Amino acid sequence: MRHTIDKFYKDTNTADVVIQKHTPFTSEEILNISNHYLVSEVMPYFMIDEPIIVDDVYHMSRIVLLDFIEGVTMNRLTLVEGRLPELNGDVIEVVVEESQAYLLDIPIGFTTTVQGKTFEVVGIVNQPWYFAYVQEISPLSGRPIESMIYVDQTFLDETTYTNISIKLKDSKQHNSFSSDYQNFIENRIQILTESYPDYIFTTRFQNQSFVKFNSDVKIVEVISIIFPLFFFLITVLVTMSSMTRIISDQRIQIGTLRSLGYSKITIITKYIIYVLLSSGIGVLLGISIGIYSIPFIAYNAYVVVYNLPPLSIEYHFMYITLISSTMILSVVVVTYFSVVNVLKEAPSNLLRHKSPKAGKKILLERFTFIWKRLKFKYKSTFRNIFRQKRNLFLMLVGISGSTALLLAGFGIKDSVELSGDAQFNQMYNFDIELGVLPNETSITLIDTNEKLNLMIQVAYFDETDYINLIVPETYDEMNGFLSFRDTKDKSIEFKSDSVFVTKQFALDHDISVGDFISLEVNDVTSNFTVTGIVAYYFGNNIYISNEIIKDVFDLYLNKIYVKLPNLSKSEMTQLKSSLNDLDNVVHVQTKDDLMASFKQTSSSMNSVIILLVIFASVLSVIINYNLTLINISTRHKEMATLKVLGYDEKEVSGYIFRETFMISSIAILIGLILGRSLQYFIISQINVDGIILKNEIYPLSYLYTAVLSIVYLLIVYVSSIPKIRKIDMLEALKSFE
Predict the structure, then answer these.
(1) What is the pLDDT at residue 55?
(2) From CA 557, how far away is CA 304, in angstroms rounded?
(3) Distance from first CA to last CA of the chain, Å, rounded?
(4) Residue 399 burial (CB count, 10 A)
(5) Which of helix, strand or coil describes residue 634?
(6) What is the Cα–Cα distance from 478 to 495, expressed in whole angstroms?
(7) How far apart (Å, rounded) are the C-alpha atoms in residues 207 and 18?
(8) What percent of the chain is modeled with pLDDT above 90?
(9) How high is the pLDDT of residue 730?
(10) CA distance 96 to 112
(11) SS3 state at 284
(12) If we measure between CA atoms, which residue out of 731, 435, 697 comes closest to residue 586?
């Protein structure tokens, strides 16, 4: 996934840094930047946010002027449909960004008027700086950007540049997602900042698309590191159980070969060649699926939140070699010791069926008041469980491991959903959120409702990062609209001296209660004392009382939270439509809209979770089936004896399955405990900017996991019945002395 976007960046020559300043760049400034010893390439351009009319409604559009005549050299556009603009005397040809969650669907042939000139859309494109479905906000109007229009720079009579995209020397040597690249960029930005202190530098690590994609990949990365370890362990267990069964079935053949004079090395080689062939084929199939199928499923799960280029396969030969050799070597080692263990016996002993292990007293027998009340079939079951200690161990480890994987898969999904519920249903006590023009908070449609006016502004933190600054008009009403909870999940009240920092930002910047922090807003810097760290799951915010901030920064109100109790869905839709028609309202979002946006983002995890559940399920069935077959093959004489004594098929099947069910039940309970620990570890390792997940699991997920594990047991039970029916009593009971 990282390789694909990094390749996409290199193919489109995506900028390392975009430079801006408060006034347009002069020719001398552009020349000065292009001649800097760290800069390899520059592309200046003009960008402005203007309203356009679409379907008789004004929508904010970001208009970018590029040099289509000479060619766009950086952040190259990918043509999706139509063609690129050409000079046309009648109209000004433009291309638009492909529609997505936050951008309008503007078709080819659409015309609109901007600054008295007619635009005609001739193509649909994608720009690499904006490949994630995230909402861009116009910094001047505060309105959301609903279309991106690219036009030739001749649109303006006089060439003016507001932005400069730059490529840094030697940046292409690094992967965009690597720590080397991040260190490389930070080092260069520090030098550039010293050279140009009045400029604003935006790197890829501050670009919304890059940050969002990188955070989502980190979630997959944690899973991709943890789960293979479980799969490897279970592979070894499956191999051990399979080879034990095969070698046990071929015990007499091994004895015959030894009697005929074949050496131990020759016999061992026979089985080694067998497992090399089978594991070799398995590894080839596994690599093919691992490289070509699973990545496509995981990658395509993100198309709901990203406009992604086609997946580019990267062959990590070191990984392929390491995984292949490790898997094959583990199978060979397990097989070797399994065969050697059998070859320790004399050939004469190998020509006879192995005698069952002698029964021993178990701990339960010492509790006579329990033991004497048990039926014979349960006494034999408990004795057989502890007689076959290797099978007991394999089953406990295998089934508990696959159960743990199942629960962890469900648990990751639960963490995302619980976090969304905690933020949107428990923390947010408002029903609708309005973005308005500065200080234009008087809106007749909602003036009779309970509402809270706020200022939301981007603030720079310690000159290295930025955070959303949120200031309520009246601090005492804040608690009625937002329910704050601290890191220990205890309610915390917003007061006149409150400075609350959200948990993820506090963790990333090592901020604690009582610390001083520096914030810069509109070129004014001030220090504040943190009074609380609050749980907040999606976003980095700092909440400051207006009593503290009004004498430091100019306070303007651009956001309104509104409570709309007992409003039906249709009434809410009607109100939303009416509010959108108002000139002083720049955007409207209901709490349902916020939740829907979150669900769309989190839905990308579903395919990954489904994959994990499927693999865990398959492993559970394979482990159970293998161990059941071992049980049947090593104890077919006992079952044949039961048949001769008059036991019916159901009772004979129960003789085996009863043990499996008891062991599996204990293994499932262990697996649920391990699964919770695994899920807790995975969630705690997800360190994503602006995202922190609630580390909990729904009680129903425990139930689903247990029920699925029992269903897999039943599947194995049903599939093993034919094996029991095929036991030949005469063949099983005849003497081989």
Answers:
(1) 78
(2) 34
(3) 63
(4) 29
(5) helix
(6) 9
(7) 10
(8) 31
(9) 66
(10) 12
(11) helix
(12) 435
Residues 595-635: tens digit of each pLDDT:
877 776 666 667 677 777 887 788 778 777 877 777 777 67
How far apart are the C-alpha atoms of 668 and 623, rounded to whole Å? Answer: 13
Nearest CA among 31, 52, 51, 50 for reference residue 42 = 31
Q: Residue type at 497?
A: D
Q: How far is 418 from 613, CA to CA, in rounded Å?
A: 19
Give me the residue label for tokens 């078709």: 107
Do residues 401 and 234 touch, judged by C-beta distance below 8 A?
yes
Dist. CA 641–CA 450, nearest whole Å: 81
Angle, vertex CA 735, rays to CA 733 and CA 737, nearest 5: 155
Which helix (H) or strand (E) segment holds residue 350: the answer is helix 347-350
Strands 92-97 and 499-502: unpaired
Residue 110 CA, distance from chain mean position:
38
Adjacent-strand bridge partners of 178: none
For residues 431 and 670, is the Cβ–Cβ distance under 8 A? no
Alpha-carbon 717 to chain mean position = 36
Tell me how far CA of residue 99 lies from CA of 80, 103, 577, in angstroms: 11, 5, 21
Q: What is the pLDDT of residues 337-396, one digit of tens each?
A: 888 988 888 888 888 766 666 666 777 777 788 888 888 777 777 777 777 777 788 788
Question: Would the CA dihedral through 141, 147, 153, 154 be positive or negative?
Answer: negative
Residue type at position 463: E
pLDDT of residue 140: 65
With H, G, I as helix, E, B as strand and everything else as coil, classify residue 586: strand
Nearest to 688 by CA among 619, 617, 602, 606: 602
- Please answer whether residues 138 and 145 qualify as being in contact, where contact means their C-beta atoms are separated by less than 8 angstroms: yes
CA distance 60 to 222: 39
Q: Is the dihedral of CA 642, 647, 653, 659 positive or negative?
A: negative
Closest CA to 167 of 73, 42, 77, 76: 42
Hey, which residues does 41 pair with through a beta bridge? Answer: 167
Crossing angle (nearest 10°) for helices 376-387 and 389-421: 90
Cα gap 461→519, rounded to integer Å: 5
Backbone dihedral angles phi then psi of residue 94, each to the nearest 5 degrees: -140, 165
- Which has the closest alpha carbon to 587: 428, 430, 433, 429? 433
Taking the C-alpha atoms of 242, 245, 247 and 248 in order, what is their torsion angle to the nearest 10 degrees? 170
Other beta carbons less than 10 A from residue 383's beta carbon: 18
Higher-pLDDT residue of 315 and 26 is 26
Helices then strands, counting H and E runs in the chain, come out as: 21, 20
User: Whose CA is closest to 500, among 544, 547, 559?
Assistant: 544
C-alpha span between 725 and 223 (Å, rounded): 43
Instruction: Tell me which residue has tokens 């709309």.
Output: 564
3-state secondary structure of 470: strand
554 is written with which tokens?
């100019």
Structure tokens, 348: 């004469």
Q: Is the pLDDT of residue 6 over 80?
A: yes
Phi, psi of 41 (to 5 degrees): -160, 140
Burial class (CB in 10 A: 0-12, 13-18, 19+), 22: exposed
For the cut 70, the answer to whether the pLDDT of residue 466 exceeds it is yes
CA distance 480 to 494: 10
DSSP β-bridge partners for residue 117 = 114
In this structure, of 427-431, 469-473, 685-689, the range with the lowest mean pLDDT score is: 685-689
Say which residue the tokens 């950007």 belong to: 145
Q: Which two tokens stand for residue 670?
A: 């262990």
535-594: pLDDT as tens digits? 998 888 999 999 998 888 878 888 999 998 888 888 888 888 888 888 788 788 888 888
Lowest pLDDT segment from 121-125, 321-325, 438-442, 722-726: 722-726
* Helix intervals (H) in 521-565: 546-549
Q: Are 321 and 283 in contact (CB under 8 A)?
A: no
